[in-house]
User: Which sequence fits this backbone?
């Protein structure tokens, strides 16, 4: 019950600053998560092509971003 | 501009590079500069921290908070709060990722924006370079001839991001720093040269004005 009220309160929170900040933070978190997963896949012998396919981006894009590590 | 840095400011820049190296980071970041500032003991920046209740022996809280930010992949507490507003529990994510990939897996080192060499071959990331530019700007706006560790600290506190949030959590804001450094409330007051004994500060200064 209290949880539902909390959620309702948050949904009603229309301050753009908070929403934008959440988006920026999410983007940052996403970048870190991607780096962790790519590193892990490389350690397990995945090719750049395979990683790119799972991420839905081009092989060049992944390689350019993580290739030199 | 490096020739106008005081001995203490140079020490901070050098020590930031050491912190970066020790953390395995490819580039010097703003957090490394903050760690270096916290190491300082004699500079005006360090004395300002002491005036604000953070003498050299009592800065572990800040170091710990910085460690937490690093562990969360660079997200500050305010970032984590904003995400919890979306129903995303950053702590939970961190602990699951660490379970699968080892402790500190999300920590930020390794990647980052493109680096540029500053000051004798050290790579500074974009944020750290902007910090140096802000530092210069602040010193110039105050009509100071030297660039000291206090200007680095002022610049850091005036920027966005985890370091300034952590500083603010511990009572170190731009306004508070300006008060203890220059005895002023706001941002004006350009009496330039510090009044409390410029013993260091004059050390490595050349009178060149750009």
Assistant:
């Amino acid at each position: 019950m209290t949880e539902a009220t909390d959620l309702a309160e948050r949904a009603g929170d229309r301050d753009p600053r908070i929403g934008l900040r959440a988006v920026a933070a999410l983007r940052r978190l996403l970048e870190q998560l991607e780096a962790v997963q790519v590193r892990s896949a490389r350690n397990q012998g995945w090719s750049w092509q395979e990683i790119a396919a799972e991420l839905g981006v081009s092989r060049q894009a992944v390689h350019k971003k993580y290739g030199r590590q | 501009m490096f020739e106008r840095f005081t001995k203490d400011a140079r020490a901070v820049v050098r020590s930031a590079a050491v912190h970066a190296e020790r953390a395995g980071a490819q580039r010097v970041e703003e957090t490394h500069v903050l760690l270096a500032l916290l190491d300082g003991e004699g500079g005006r920046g360090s004395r300002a921290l002491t005036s604000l209740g953070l003498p050299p022996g009592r800065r572990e809280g800040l170091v710990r908070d910085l460690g937490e930010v690093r562990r969360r992949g660079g997200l500050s507490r305010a970032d984590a709060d904003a995400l919890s507003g979306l129903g995303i529990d950053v702590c939970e994510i961190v602990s699951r990722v660490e379970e699968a990939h080892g402790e500190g897996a999300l920590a930020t080192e390794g990647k980052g924006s493109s680096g540029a060499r500053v000051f004798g071959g050290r790579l500074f990331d974009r944020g750290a370079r902007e910090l140096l530019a802000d530092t210069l700007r602040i010193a110039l706006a105050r009509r100071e001839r030297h660039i000291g560790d206090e200007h680095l600290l002022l610049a850091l506190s005036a920027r966005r991001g985890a370091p300034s949030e952590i500083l603010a959590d511990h009572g170190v804001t731009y306004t508070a720093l300006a008060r203890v450094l220059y005895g002023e409330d706001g941002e004006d007051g350009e009496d330039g040269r510090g009044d409390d004994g410029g013993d260091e500060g004059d050390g490595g200064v050349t009178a060149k004005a750009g």
User: Anything to note?
Assistant: Residues 187-210 of chain B have pLDDT under 50 and may be disordered. Chain B touches chain A at residues 73-75, 78-80, 82-83, 85-88, 90, 93, 97, 101, 105-106, 108, 110-111 (CB under 8 Å).
